[in-house]
Design brief:
single chain, about 500 residues, alpha/beta, Aldehyde Dehydrogenase, Chain A, domain 1, Aldehyde Dehydrogenase, Chain A, domain 2, 2 domains, seven-stranded mixed beta sheet, globular, binds 1,4-dihydronicotinamide adenine dinucleotide, binds magnesium ion
């Protein structure tokens, strides 16, 4: 299918890839949807169609699941020497690294994020994730256990791959989310069906080619493009799938849990957030200003851990709000591939409308706009100006709900008592992340203990590493991604006891 519109700044190689007749990876072959259907992929900087990709439905899902089932039950992947699995994961990392610019261009074009950011964040973090998990492939082991029942037994545990894994990912970090899911599952010896987000399938399709080239055997990884209801739902419900790992909205997370009930497949979920950033009066103010601004504006606020509730001590409230608002007002909006771009468009028309309607609802309920607002001033594309709201109250939608855009609510506090501060910070159904800005060590650690969230950053925000576990308390999810902890998502433990 012909490319209808592509940014002239992309390299010929990227343009050629965008224009190819896209195929899904099923059972080691690149195939169209069984129905022959495709759907359009949009450039969020213009609203124009970039290309078309196959629309997987139940029949394609079934073929992919059967392939992954066969690859798990009979194929080489779970039986391969761990070092060989590790070597293939390392090769995937090398190939991605060799094509850094191409992956970054594709990500920028498809998702809207600045090319420069994709190049220094999304792609290198993806490479690190595959390398880190390549290392784990040879280090997954059980324990020997002394039984109190006596010394006539020899007991040990085996850590075995959980089986066929369905993985469903969102559009905010399309390539990186694929890596967070694929790398640990593959390191453990699982076989996978990965469904890409319908808004941003391009880097995942390119990754499918790379995984094939790196020597992942047929059926061990299958990559589908399709919609949530048409492809995600039958995948989450499929009886031959042993485990489903999902990242996306809390609403769909609840649907995944229900879909998984049929065969009681295991479930892990990485869902929404409404993360607090708490600035104490003794914080280094310049650091707190730039840090809390980037906590919300990084990736256009399209981060599950975005610092969207900014609590600032009343002594420094005006100063911090002014600083963050100045940064917001200075941010240059442009297409992601424009070298001057500091913030690109949001990912889709749907997301654009959602974020603008939140800003409007905040204003209607009495919030004051310190920077930004509902009108971006950019002629076309899904641009939203980074926005700072004050004069909110805890019951407003903008304070309670995940906006998933560059919108922060700044709230003053005068509390001296740490419990009162924690009560505000924890006043949410979510519990994904948080940051605290202070020079007071004791306060930092007290807040770190008291926050009900999976991540606490001190004098920083949005710091990720393949070695750091990441995930949510409360309605932000089940289980952890990354680090050694993620291996639990993809392993079963078997206890073996031998009477001596
Ligand atoms: P979503 O949760 O609908 O989509 C995420 C993934 O789930 C996509 O691959 C989608 O195709 C799939 N999906 C959708 N419905 C499904 C179903 N019934 N069964 C199985 N899979 C299904 O998120 P969406 O619509 O893209 O964004 C809506 C809101 O969700 C955002 O505004 C944001 O608040 C939140 N979100 C949170 C993310 C996070 O990282 N925690 C990521 C993306 C969105
Ligand atoms: Mg949705």
């Amino acid at each position: 299918m012909a490319t209808l519109s592509i940014d002239p700044r992309v390299s010929g190689r990227t343009a050629d890839f965008v224009a190819t007749d896209h195929r899904m990876l099923i059972d080691g072959r690149f195939v169209p949807a069984a129905s022959g259907k495709t759907f359009p992929v949009y450039n969020p900087a213009t609203g124009e169609i970039l290309t078309h990709v196959p629309e997987a439905e139940a029949e394609d899902v079934n073929r992919a699941v059967l392939a992954a089932r066969r690859a798990f039950d009979e194929g080489p992947w779970p039986r391969m020497a761990p070092s060989e699995r590790g070597r293939i994961l390392w090769k995937i990392a090398d190939l991605i690294e060799q094509h850094t610019d191409e992956f970054a261009e594709l990500e920028s074009l498809d998702n809207g994020k600045p090319f420069a950011v994709a190049r220094v964040a999304d792609v290198p973090l993806t490479v690190d994730m595959f390398r880190y998990m390549a290392g784990w492939a040879t280090k997954i082991s059980g324990k020997t256990l002394p039984l109190s029942a006596g010394y006539d037994f020899h007991s040990y545990t085996l850590r075995e791959p959980i089986g066929v894994v369905a993985q469903i990912i969102p559009w905010n970090f399309p390539l990186l989310m694929a890596a967070w899911k694929l790398a640990p599952a593959l390191a453990c010896g699982c076989t996978v069906i990965l469904k890409l987000a319908e808004q941003t399938p391009l880097t995942g399709l390119r990754l499918a080619q790379v995984m094939d080239e790196a020597g992942v055997p047929a059926g061990a990884v299958n990559v589908l493009t399709g919609f949530g209801e048409g492809a995600g739902a039958p995948l989450a419900a499929h009886d031959l799938v042993d485990k489903v790992a999902f990242t996306g909205s809390t609403e769909v997370g609840k649907l995944i849990v229900k879909a998984a009930a049929g065969n009681l497949k295991k479930v892990t979920l990485e869902l929404g957030g409404k993360s607090p950033a708490i600035v104490f009066p003794d914080a280094k103010i310049d650091q707190a200003v730039s840090g809390t601004a980037s906590a919300i504006f990084f990736n256009h606020g399209q981060c599950c851990c975005a610092g969207s509730r900014l609590y600032i001590h009343e002594k420094v409230f005006d100063q911090v709000v002014e600083g963050v608002s100045n940064i917001a007002s200075d941010i240059k909006l442009a297409p992601g591939l424009d070298p001057s771009c500091q913030m690109g468009p949001l990912v889709s028309d749907e997301q654009y409308r959602k974020v603008v309607s939140y800003i409007e609802s905040g204003i209607a309920e009495g919030a004051r706009v310190q920077a930004g607002g509902p009108v971006s001033g950019v002629e076309r594309g899904y641009f939203v100006r980074p926005t700072v709201l004050t004069n909110t109250n805890p019951r407003m939608k903008v304070v309670q709900e995940e906006i998933f855009g560059p919108v922060v609510c700044a709230v003053p506090f005068g509390d001296k008592d740490v419990d009162a501060i924690l009560k505000r910070a924890n006043d949410t159904v979510f519990g994904l992340a948080s940051s605290v800005w202070t020079q007071d060590l004791s306060m930092a650690h007290k807040v770190a203990r008291g926050i009900r969230a999976g991540t606490v950053w001190v004098n920083c925000h949005n710091v990720f590493d393949a070695s750091l576990p990441f995930g949510g308390y409360k309605q932000s999810g089940w289980g952890r991604e990354m680090g050694e902890e993620v291996l639990n998502n993809y392993l079963e433990t078997k206890a073996v006891t031998v009477a001596l």
